[in-house]
Structures are given as C-alpha cells and as structure tokens.
Amino acid sequence: MEYDFENPRLLIVGAGAIGGVCAGFLTQSGYHVDLITKHEELAFKIQTEGIQVLSPHGQFQIKIPAFPNMEKIEGKYDLIFMTVKATDLKEAVRAVEPFMHSNSAIVTLENGICEDMVAEMVGQARVIGCIVGWGATMHSPGIVEMTSLGEFVIGNLDNSIDKRVEKVQEILSAVNPCYISQNIYGTLYSKLIINSCITSLGAVCGLYLGDMLASKQVRRIFIEIIRESITVANAMNLQVEVYGGKLNYYEFLKGNGIFAELRRHLLIRIIGLKYKKLKSSSLQSLERGKKTEIDYLNGYIVKQGEKHNIATPVNSLMVKIIKEIEAGKREISKKNFEDFLDLIKN
Fold this sequence. Notes:
Structural class: alpha/beta
Strand order of the largest sheet: 5-2-1-6-7-8-11-12
Oligomer: single chain
Number of domains: 2
Strand content: 15-25%
CATH class of the largest domain: Alpha Beta
CATH superfamily of the largest domain: NAD(P)-binding Rossmann-like Domain
Number of helices: 13
Radius of gyration: 20 Å
Order of helices and strands: EHEHEEEEHEHEEEEHEHHHHHHHH
Shape: globular
C-alpha cells in the first residue's frame, strides 16, 4: 500500500497533555485525525463535546473522532503518533501494528529512548524518532494546555531524509516549529541526559527543581550523570547534539580545576532558578501510584554502559533507588541523596 502524501490518515495514541494538544491543533488545521484513549468516558467526551486546548497560540474547543480501543477502527493509517508513557508503549505498538501498511510509520513522542524497542517490533524503516521540546499539562480530562513554546525535532532512524519524514515535519509544524535531524539518536540522547538529571533527581527527593538544585550535593550528582552519559556515548560512537541549542555537554565537562567546577555548578544553579517551579514528571507518576520511565532514561544509559563495558555507578544507583520507591521499599525523600556520597566527587 502506498503512503498518501496528499491526505494522510493520522492516528494519535494517548489523549493526555501532549497527545491532546497535538490532536487539537492537527484537527483544527484540517488533518484527518483519529484519537485513541483507554478511558471510555474521555473518548465519548472528546467525540461529542470536544477537547479544550489552551496555548500561547490561542484557545479553542474542537470535536475529534476518539475511541477507547482499536476494536471499532477500520483500515490502515499512514502515520501513528505515540504519546503514551514509555511504560505503556510496547502494548500500544502491539495494538496498532495491524492497522499499519508497509509504508506506515510510528512517530515516537515519548521521554527517553524507546526507538530501538519499537524498531524491533515493526522494523526500523517504519519508525520516526521525535523529540518534544515544549511543555504541556492536562488540567482535567479533556482540558489540556501548552504551557511553554518550543520545537519538535524528528528524524528517520537511519538519518535519511525522504518525502515521508518531510510530510511529518509539515504536519507537526501545525502545532509548533518542527525540524529534521540527520543525527536523530544524538538528538534523542541529548534530551535523555537532561531528563535523566532533572526528572530522575526530582523523583528521588520530591522537591521542585529550584529547591533541588540549590543543593551542592545534588548538583554534584547532576554533573556525574552527565559525565557518565557522555562517556557511554563516546563508547557508542555517538555525537550528542547540543540540548535546546544551548547546553553543549562536551563544553560543560571541559576542565578539571576549581574554576571549571564552579562554572558547572553556576550553570546548573541558573537552570534551577529559571525553572524553579518545575515538578518532575516521574515524581508525578510516583505520586499517582504509577511506574516511572526510568528504564528508558537512566536505565538506557546503564544498559548501553553494560553493553560497551563502561561503568555507570551513579546512573545505576539512580535506577536502583527509583525502582525501590516504585516497589514501596523506600520513601521519596532528599535523604536518598546520602546514598550517592561515596560516588560523587568532592
């Protein structure tokens, strides 16, 4: 079956913050969008009353064909945008695979690096990696808000550029600016590093970002997560892209003297002050009694480290602590940082 470049059939899986915002803007722009949410009442509400979207671009309410599962779906989709949690992704891919044709693509909008897993299931040629560089929140079911502006970065896993990825760029640009990367893993890994610092550290202690990064001890852990991550990337022969066009990890790690260390601490402190009220998404998952995406964040770094014989003690401990919190064997507390004392530099 050929890809329909003129009028592609789109499926968005997940009606949370990112999925809801995307579905709203794409439908408003005239694209043929179906939406899947596992909550039957929410699907009915979106289909009959519409989803309400708030954003810096304006606000609107729009009805979208929405379904609680794939049972009432017929035919094939050209593009499937996955906006579910990484922990739910494998199940979601299994559900949508029968609705893909040979030229369909799954576009992955998850945190962390999930593309390898999806490629194993449907084939590398049917996966397009995607980084979401803007923020969103769901105020209540059916009411979503784009809380910050930013961009998408997308790319084929083999770094090629073709008509299909260019069409995805055009489609996502209806939401926010979208750029094509010819180093998609380097771009994905760049965001992975910052999430492995900010999101995971927040889940361990339960603090807002500003309060957390005011601690010198936490900033040391932050630095060591980056150091281990770049060491692993070097072993993978992966060139990590500059995060958000501003944070160059290689420059960040340069130098061993006191002034270089002060520079690193100052930069992290500035991040904490700029985003002081940011609350970790992994912390929010834990507070709702759900599992985090740790296996696709720090866990990915640990797994790649093991594969390339690179020690990752700080990232490994981060995974261990969060797994214990998930299992109810440990409390969320800043006291958890004491476990890192023997691993971080003075």
